[in-house]
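Project channel, design review

CF: Before we commit to the Aristophania vespae constructs, I'd like one complete example in the thread so the newer folks can see what an input/output pair looks like. Taking Thioredoxin domain-containing protein.
RD: sounds good, go ahead.
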Amino acid sequence: MANRATKPVSLIWGTGPLKLDIFIEPTCPFCVRTLGKIKPFLSEVGESNVMVELHLHSQPWHLFSPVIMRSILAAATLPDGKNKAWHVLEIIGQHREEFEFKDHASGPNMEATPNDIVRRVEQYSGLSLQEAFKSQDVTASLKRYAKFARQNGIHVSPTFMVNGLIDNRFSSGEDISEWVERVRAELKNKLS
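CF: and here is what came back for Thioredoxin domain-containing protein:
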């Protein structure tokens, strides 16, 4: 098993010429708000116009971040994995407080183990993740996300990159129409 080639998992929606990379931490309230806007944004701007790639970005003050990220990527290795990973992202956002710590350092999750967290994700998502959680593909994906974030100077989430460059004009607090307007302007400039 040690010599088995690994295939990192990608979380990409859309096929367009403009690439929007979004770095998220799944239990961050600002990232949860961002996630809720991605599907409507894609619908509005058109999946043939933009490609959105999510990059899971661990933040150490979210203490179970790596376990939760690994659970999302485990879902992505299953059949129809991209949609299952999205489903897990949504349920984590809906139950965010159950995966977090009070003031990032106390509360009921102090007694929780990584297995408890994975079982909680399984319970809410209806998916069996224990075996996939151990996958070397998941490990390769986590390493790839960390390396890519470091190479691009990503420190906080959500962070947005347009065609490979950090774009601080985007934020989780904006209306979807602002994202659409900005992307349409970028597409117009790209085609000019």
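RD: helpful, thanks. Residues 1-5 have pLDDT under 50 and may be disordered.
CF: The radius of gyration is 17 Å.
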